[in-house]
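User: Can you predict the 3D structure for this chain?
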Amino acid sequence: MGIFKLITVCLIVVTSFYGCKEETKTEKESVNTISKKQPNIIFIFADDWGYGDLGIHGSTFCKTPNLDKMASEGIDFQNFSVVNPVCSPSRVGVVTGQFPARQSVHGHFASVASHAKRNMPDWLDPKAPMLPRMLKKAGYATAHFGKWHLTNTHVEDAPSPLEYGYDEYGAFNLAGRLHQMQADSTLYKTIDFVKRHKDKPFFINAWVHATHTPHYPKEEYMQQFAHLDEQQQVYAAVVSEYDARIGDLFATLKELGLDDNTLVVFSSDNGPEISGSHKKIDDNSTGPGLGEYYSVGEANELSGRKRSLFAGGVRIPFIVRWPGNVPEGKVDKTTEMAAVDLLPTFLELAGATYPEGYVPDGESIVAAIKGEAYKREKPIYWDWRFSNDRPYFWPSAAIQENNWKLLTNKKMNRTELYDISTDWGEQKDVSADNPGKVKALGEKLEMFQKTLPEAPPANTFSKERKTLELE
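Assistant: Here is the predicted structure, written as structure tokens:
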């Protein structure tokens, strides 16, 4: 290369370098300007944590002083539902703002063979609409800590969380080739991220392991509940540990002066697990621990548990705290909300816009969390393809609208209707007295099901599928 050409190239490089720096500075100033209006957002998503596992919800043996305090400083919404009764599809509803069946995620991610059998993808489509990607575009630092389960460790070639719009992550239930972090690190990593990003708006998904199996109770907390029986002692110890870590998070927000500008939401991905016979189990992502024998979470008067479309399986804790913006100590048992509402809500608070062509299944509940008048316009739908004939586990689909909830299973020729406004626990079937309501809701449910895809997108299949086809 000639000397003059070399000098010219160098000048171009230097000019481009400083031009990029100047542009970045301008973008930074813009972000700092809007960050004064943008709240930090932390979404704490527990796992298999039943509605009745909180002290304020009448737990008979668990102690949750920090979550109880959180509710006293915010709103305890008691008519909030996830949109699937198990973990993976429930989480898809949160991050996409759409019902998980639209992504062909019908059940939990497991092995490639299991996915093929259930007509599921091997991971959530990274091109799907994604909450972190939208917030990142709006100037937020984004992070995911804790359980992932938008694929599984059995799948080696699944995308990493970075491909979904996160700046940083630490997780388990990831693709098998990726590092699986310790299950109890979620809130420690959350606190560390808050400290490092205190000068910029941030969004954190803190998806904690508790109270999913395996259980890993620590001696410090086991001693606090030595008066309980073996099962309750383990479960209460696990709950207490995570409640304490949530207390640490709030203390950090106050120390950094971020408390008044940080919206914190606590919820759970589905209702409590069914207690079983296994005292010890091993998990390929989090390691060996205690089994579902110790899963004695409570749903209180709500019918059903995890894997059920009845209230106990999908209506879960939902506490919102944002000092100065959310009323203190309010209990709301009637306002209908769903997990698909989080994306539109967080985007409205961030002043962000939807990507072109995107239509959420949820709607913004900003008015409700600010204590203002709000009435839901969109129905809530459930599509569940793994029902059985046990009591409360028979429904395969459901719809809720204006506090009427229809549960149905065509193969079993069974349909029930509940008026949640007078029967919050879903104890009395009133379908016989309301044939018109049954017909109207049933027709809407059928129309929704016709909009669902028949198969997952082609870019969500592992290379292992080809191996399975040859067998």
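Residues 1-35 have pLDDT under 50 and may be disordered. The CA atoms of residues 159 and 320 lie 31 Å apart.
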